[in-house]
Amino acid sequence: MSFDLRRAEPRRPSILIWMLAVPLALFGFLSVCIGLDASFLLRIDQDVARLAYDASIDHSGFVTLLDITAVVFSNASCGVALALLTAYALSRRERSIAVWIVASGAVAIGGNALIKLAFKRERPTFDKPLHEIGGYSFPSGHSAGAAMLVTVAILMTIVLTGRGWRRRIIVTVLGAVGFAVAASRVFLGVHYLSDVMAGLSLGVVVALGLWILLVTDATRLPHELAVLTGTGRKRAAVIINPAKVGDVEEFKGRVRVVAERDGWKEPLWFETTVEDPGYGQALSALKADVDLIVAAGGDGTVRAVCEEVARTGVAVGILPHGTGNLLARNLGIPLNSRDALDVVFGGQDRAIDLGTLRTDTGTNTSFLVMAGLGMDAAIMTGVNDQLKSKVGWLAYFVSGVKAARYPAMKVQISVDDGEFKKFRARTVVVGNVGFLQAGIPLLPDAEIDDGRLDVVVLAPKRFIGWLAIIVRVIGRQRRTNDRLDRLTGHKVVICAEKTMPMQLDGDPVEEGQEITAEVQHGVLLVRVPVAPAPAPAPRFGG
Questions:
Q1: Within this chain, do residues 369 and 432 fall inside the same structural domain, yes or no?
Q2: 450 φ/ψ angles, rounded to the nearest 5 degrees
Q3: I need a surface site. Which of 33, 209, 404, 477 has the fewest CB within 10 A?
Q4: Is the residue at 537 inside a domain?
Q5: Could you give the CA distance from residue 268 to residue 266 in angstroms, rounded to a whole number?
Q6: E-assigned strands of 360-431?
Q7: What pTM was computed for the model?
């Protein structure tokens, strides 16, 4: 995982200020009320404290859990966690983040102790205390420490991960932990409600405020040599598939913000149609002499644009909006639009291969990912579009289960104009890349820039035989036999005994009996994430 501070930049800079202002205002309000002995707040605090105490007193197991929570989220434990995070940041040469982590811990823990001395608020008292503790009550040190640590962890998660379900789950869990720690102090009878609310506010204010002060100014863009392409005038065209993008105007607004931030001029805009999925639009963009052409859509849009732009020296940026997005996945391009935009306007160009495909039915086109015939094409044909729109690529799994009994066929395969080899297969796939959705390594040796095509022939005898093949594929076993065989070369010819369904980059094409696939080495430039700088070689001696 690599740090990218731009991930923590909100679309509107004012959002960070509001996120800081709200807990700061809450802390200020509670401080004033405590300082003035506001009777209404005291009544609320006492009522909540009594209800929490009554809920805990008869449940020894719950009280034990509260005691454990107190130890786990003590100042000492928070200090250890911060030290580990600091060490990790330093190991990645992120000094500004390391300084921010250390400062957040010192200010939150030390500042909380000083504030306690200023207010000297006594803790709640009960005839039979659940937990004996000294010191003052306002604000809660455990709550402040937990909120600070959670805020640090959330911001670290954001700069280390792209947008998506994984980030949302982590952030949600971390937020829930912070609130749970604060609630535990009230149920343990050692703090009032206002104490923990003030502690939470203080922890967030310290960590977020120091982030704004120490880190946001350190946000950096890739080296300028990594983002120059074409003439260097930074003129881009964006080709949009409106059926995939949704709100086109809102999408254009997001693109403009990132383009302007990275020094690109106002893009030219083109939209695909049912009749033209991107070929004509890409040609118009090339005629406009742009330096970068951005394809915003699914695999079909990306393929059409790339086929037209290949061999021109103009780079293609990819904003994936489809279901498969296999090219983006194999190139490490983020699937969420914000991070993908960062790559489009701040990435580097990579020369990749393009596959060409001819069939006996007259099809003559290109592919970037995979082409094939047999069961895999039957899967593409059998996908329910309504289910696909609801569950995404999982719809292919459902279709795959239905197609698992697709009958075996006799095929002959020739590589690099060599002799034809006979196979009995359920499906044959020719790949320019190696990985399917969910990171399944169907062709583990395939590289998109090695000037070769990889072929896999799958031929399980029975339905149960698919399980053995799945285990071998996921385990990246290179052993081949008559159930799973692999070939590689610059040119592949596949001849089937009868007409079979065919697919191209996940889209079904006309049925036929013969496929000829060839590789065009390094003819297409695609924007990919900037490669991390290599670690310096170790030096020995004096």
A1: yes
A2: -95, 0
A3: 477
A4: no
A5: 7
A6: 364-367, 370-374, 409-415, 421-425, 427-431
A7: 0.56
